[in-house]
Write a structure and sequence with these properties.
The complex is a heterodimer. Chain A is α/β, with parallel strands linked by helices. Helices cover about 30% and strands about 20% of the residues of chain A. Chain A has a five-stranded mixed beta sheet with strand order 5-4-6-10-7, with helices on one face. In chain A, strands 3-9-8 form a three-stranded mixed beta sheet, with no helix packed on it. Chain A has a two-stranded antiparallel ribbon with strand order 1-2. By secondary structure, chain B is of the alpha+beta class. Helices cover about 35% and strands about 30% of the residues of chain B. In chain B, strands 2, 3, 4, 5, 6, 7 and 8 form a seven-stranded antiparallel beta sheet that branches. Classes of the chains: A alpha/beta, B alpha+beta. The interface between A and B is large, with 49 and 47 residues.
């Protein structure tokens, strides 16, 4: 009977362990970036409407509220060319002058007036919440784009709209959910992001 | 003796009741402060994309216009901004009583620090009220940037949301507004902050 080469066996074991660890870390990071977070609003002293929320509508409607170039196109591109192409998704955006949860699930605003607050953009819940974490839903998300910092249009639209459908920040470079302050530059959802959104909705 | 026994028993009963009340009050007070702490920081959190990022606390300190230690003395409404169409954004302002200036204008005694209040116009007053009532009294170290807008003269903001550190009064420090509560760079083992001594060491290295 041929004896196994101990060096080869050890190398194989280490290689398997390394691959398993790498897959585990990548999976853990990706898994960690989906699900609602924030306060639920049950505390009467705290409105509790900041954080990440899921949308409650499979037919996802985004309002472009008075957006100007380049953000008008950036929002349209990210919704129609990225989110809409996720299997099972039906995502569209329209120009509008009023935001309400009858017509929209998320509204995007841009302005110079926000001042220099240190944010390229941010997301908050402007409607009502239901359910419980990590699946809490918001009926209407408000996305703001701060023109004072001239953030790349498609990237900031992808990032903030991601928060409005349940995506959290990530360290994955191929994802628009990686923060600019963390070195993020991608203007697209990663395959992990898309898998989360496909699985949830 | 029966009378004395009765008095003694009555006193003992009252003493036990008193101790129980003090105990309950202490636990209740601790729970209340913990609830205040959660309310204060969770109300201020913003889910968004920050402009400025740093690889270490020292790099952030060197970039900041002002680094100060102190305590918040008040929190109130600052400005309501009208954007396009039905867009309304509200800012709140914390007044920081300065204990020590670690970097920047050493004559400054208090600093107005503006925070985004990420709530609708209808809910913002309740959020501001909650922030005022739950105002943290813990020691804080802030890394600040002078705001640049025409309507923002004299106001400061955090360099980013990892630029606010609090003494947790248990020998540790937290960055309660950062994603992980401890500052992102602690993950890479660079200039991690694990305890108050690390911040104090930082204060020594950046003190002007």
């Amino acid at each position: 009977m041929k004896q196994p080469n101990n060096t080869k066996v050890h190398f194989r074991r280490w290689a398997v362990a390394f691959v398993a660890l790498t897959i585990g870390l990548v999976t853990a990071d990706a898994a960690a970036n989906f699900g609602s977070v924030g306060t639920a609003g049950s505390n009467p002293n705290n409105p509790g409407l900041n954080g990440v929320w899921l949308t409650n509508n499979d037919y996802w409607r985004v309002g472009r509220i008075g957006l100007q170039a380049p953000y008008l196109q950036g929002v349209d591109d990210t919704v129609e060319l990225d989110y809409e192409t996720i299997p099972g998704w039906d995502a569209h955006s329209w120009n509008a002058t009023v935001c309400d949860d009858w017509n929209f699930d998320a509204c995007v605003y841009d302005s110079w007036n926000y001042g220099f607050n240190g944010f390229n953009g941010w997301n908050s819940c402007g409607g009502t919440t239901s359910g419980s974490h990590p699946n809490q839903e918001c009926s209407l998300s408000h996305v703001r784009i701060n023109k004072n910092y001239s953030p790349p249009a498609r990237r900031i639209a992808c990032h903030e709209l991601g928060h409005s459908v349940g995506l959290r920040h990530t360290s994955t470079s191929s994802s628009c959910m990686k923060k600019t302050s963390d070195g993020g530059t991608s203007e697209l959802l990663s395959s992990h992001d898309r898998a989360h959104l496909n699985a949830e909705y | 003796m029966d009378f004395l026994n009765k008095i003694t028993n009555k006193h003992l009963g009252m003493a036990f009741a008193g101790i129980a009340c003090v105990g309950v009050a202490k636990v209740s007070d601790t729970a209340s402060r913990a609830m205040d702490d959660v309310t204060f920081w969770s109300t201020l959190q913003v889910m968004g994309d920050e402009v400025e990022g740093y690889e270490s606390l020292t790099a952030m300190a060197e970039s900041a216009d002002l680094v100060v230690s102190g305590q918040f003395s008040s929190f109130k409404h600052s400005r309501t901004i009208l954007g396009e169409y039905d867009d309304v954004v509200v800012y709140g302002m914390a007044d920081l009583k300065v204990n020590e200036v670690l970097r920047g204008n050493s004559d400054i005694e208090s600093v107005p620090v503006e925070f985004l209040i990420p709530y609708s116009e209808e809910l913002a007053p309740a959020a501001l009220d909650a922030l005022s009532k739950s105002l943290t009294r813990n020691d804080v170290v802030l890394f600040l940037r002078e705001k640049e807008g025409d309507d923002e003269v004299g106001l400061y903001r955090l360099v980013n949301y990892t630029g606010l550190w609090i003494d947790d009064k248990e020998g540790g420090v937290r960055a309660p507004l950062s994603d992980d509560g401890r500052g992102d760079w602690t993950k890479d083992g660079g200039s991690g902050v694990e305890e108050l001594a690390d911040i104090e060491h930082l204060q020594d290295s950046i003190r002007e």
